[in-house]
């Protein structure tokens, strides 16, 4: 490691304290980004196969210019009239089912989920929240208490219940996988009720990214959504990971499953790195919250954020990036799957569009998580010019979610590097 990077490590520890974590055995220090590439001080490029925030590419000129233009004209808040927020809300709503009629803007996905829970509680009169076994939904107190993947020391809220993620067995139908998932939701509802807690919401990341990337068979969410509705609760689709075209076949992850959520939360790619996030909601679900409280978020929905978000939508829609995610994602998954012939560690390749999970197993028959090997691969790739990470409770699933401008050529580069690194184990 460079001595200057060693000095940065020491400054971080001193200034930022013990809660921050870095990726990789050898921490990475990029100084510049462009498109799908990050560059270190020496100008060496790394392929960014991990960053779903910069969906239209690092340092994307259209977004940078929109931020600069609006920032040099006016930046205030949502207590003055401004067209920017309304123009963007209109555009955003056209991407969503017509049942969702209101939007609310925040700065982070965590805030969006936190607000969604407050809205769910006001609407249902309940407090119970059901999430998946290894979910991540954010950092606020209420949401961290519903994010078991934060680690074994996280104490889940007394009103929170977890259910197994819909991890389909090979060949399983959507109905069968959906029934098993709904069985978990039914049990969680019963347990909440047995403790005198009314269910308020089922909240899921619709690609189950922290649980291990579970996308198929499409349709498996339907029964669980019916179940939470029957119990008087609402369904919140956390689209922070899959939203904005990443899954290729649809603009939002929930659409793949043929369900209409009561609330949709979003963030990460929305501003290509500018902190803008939000929530879309059925008006009848928002009504009680609107009567009981006012909503103001100092930075959420400000003119600069809305200009950034609008520029991102321009690029996604103008360049057909959803279609690119579909095509390049399928190509990438096929290429990664072909590595199974050479490398016995390669298990199931899952995903939709440019959200890919590559399971590494020490026994295919037993599906034994190859946790240690996954860490070796992630760190080996980091040394060999590719950035990605691992997910799931056993951290044995390579998580690959590059910017949406990822090309076939980029996919070939990634596949060849994964092949090389697997060959070194
Ligand atoms: N939900 C999901 C599914 C996420 O992955 C994340 C962030 N990793 C969040 C919510 C929280 O978003 P933020 O970090 O913007 O608060």
Short description:
The chain has 425 residues and is an alpha/beta fold. The protein is built from 12 helices and 16 strands. The chain is globular.
Describe the structure.
This protein has 425 residues and is α/β, with parallel strands linked by helices. It is built from twelve helices and 16 strands. The strands form three sheets. The chain has a seven-stranded mixed β-sheet with strand order 4-10-9-8-7-5-6, sandwiched between helices. Strands 11, 12, 13, 15 and 16 form a five-stranded antiparallel β-sheet that branches. Helix 7 links the parallel strand 7 and strand 8. It starts with a helix and ends with a helix. The model has no long low-confidence stretch (mean pLDDT 97).
